[in-house]
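Request: How about a record?
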Amino acid sequence: MLDDSDSKNPFEEDAKQAADETDKQLAGAQARVSTVSWDGLKKMLPNPGDQQQLNELIKIVQGATDHNQKVASLIANISTLGGIVVKVLSRVP
């Protein structure tokens, strides 16, 4: 007959330690993520062409349409707005 010590998962302590380490790493990453306002994004992109594309993106995102319509509009405009998305995301800390 097996006692309780034999049925214990031999990896339980390692799994708990790994989970704790992951939680610490995620907390550090979350602390580094900051919120950037639309005005902050505009300041990151001084080029007038970039500003125009960002304004188009803002119109789509803040439009009075539902989520699916916004996604469809973004997909339809990805060739013109894709570059600004890449620029913005590369500059966000």
In short: The chain has a mean pLDDT of 81. Residues 42 and 55 are 9 Å apart (CA to CA). Residues 38-91 form one domain.
